[in-house]
Structure formats: structure tokens, C-alpha cells
Specification:
The protein is an all-alpha fold. Helix 4 packs antiparallel against helix 5. The chain is elongated and about 85 Å long. The model has no long low-confidence stretch (mean pLDDT about 85).
Length: about 150
């Protein structure tokens, strides 16, 4: 089956169970049924940008969204999340040590106002400098494609 245009290619529906096939099984299926999915279809020059991006997304979903690729993305996410949690743990530990020094030693004398002021300063400073940027940099799990 030779499909030429992007419309013909994107109209093709993969068989049931396609998501569970490995990359080699997918290529074998396409070879067995004589289906060619080019990177750029024959009507590539007539497509606008949105159509090109839709074709690329379809192409990737058909050929590259394999169980192996999804598992690799999940492993990468877990590794990044573990590193993020370790770094966040170190920042919290440093904050607790600093607060322990402020409240647990007699270095400041009986200056309760100074201790409260340093605690508020450390809490606000950590929130603005560490916790907010770290929460924005937290890894996002890979998107599940239907």
C-alpha cells in the first residue's frame, strides 16, 4: 500500500495493540503490509506550519512512541525527581541547621526579638531564593499519549 499525501498517511489507523508493539515489531508489521511512512510526504511543500507539526506529531506517535521509549522517559523522570528530592532535602537540612544555631546556642544572649527576626528573615529568604525556584524546577512526569 503506497500512500503519498499527508492526508492519506494520517488517515491510516494502526491496528489494535499497536501501542504495545516494540519498534522492531512495528517496522516488521509495516514491511509485511508494504506500508511506507516517509518523514516528509509528497505534499510537504503545500502544507502550512500547523499541518507540518501535526504530521510530525502523528509520525512520532506511530513510529517512536514504543513501550521502550515510554519506559526510558519514565526512568529519566524518576532519576530527575530523585535528584530534585535530594537537593531539596539538603536545602531543608541547611535551613534547620541555621535555625538550630539561632535558637539552640547562647551566642545571641537573651535577645528573643533578634532570634525571631533572624528566623523570619531566614524563612522569607529561603522561600524567595530556594523554595519557589525549586518548586518551579520540579521535574514533570512524561505525558501519557492516548
Amino acid at each position: 500500500m503506497t500512500m503519498k499525501t499527508s492526508r492519506e498517511l494520517m488517515a491510516w489507523q494502526p491496528p489494535v495493540g499497536w501501542r504495545e508493539l516494540s519498534g522492531e515489531q512495528r517496522h516488521a508489521y509495516l514491511e509485511r503490509h508494504d506500508i511506507r511512512i516517509p518523514l516528509r510526504p509528497a505534499d510537504w511543500d503545500e502544507l502550512d506550519h500547523d499541518q507540518c507539526m501535526a504530521y510530525f506529531a502523528w509520525h512520532d506517535r506511530i513510529l517512536k512512541d514504543t513501550p521502550e521509549a515510554r519506559a526510558a522517559k519514565q526512568r529519566e523522570f524518576r532519576k530527575d525527581l530523585r535528584a530534585w528530592r535530594v537537593l531539596m532535602g539538603w536545602w531543608v537540612l541547611c535551613l534547620l541547621v541555621a535555625l538550630g544555631i539561632v535558637w539552640g546556642t547562647g551566642a545571641l544572649g537573651e535577645g528573643i526579638g533578634l532570634r525571631i527576626g533572624l528566623t523570619l528573615f531566614a524563612g522569607f529568604g529561603y522561600t524567595m531564593a530556594i523554595f519557589i525556584p525549586m518548586s518551579l524546577a520540579k521535574p514533570v512526569p512524561p505525558r501519557q499519549t492516548p
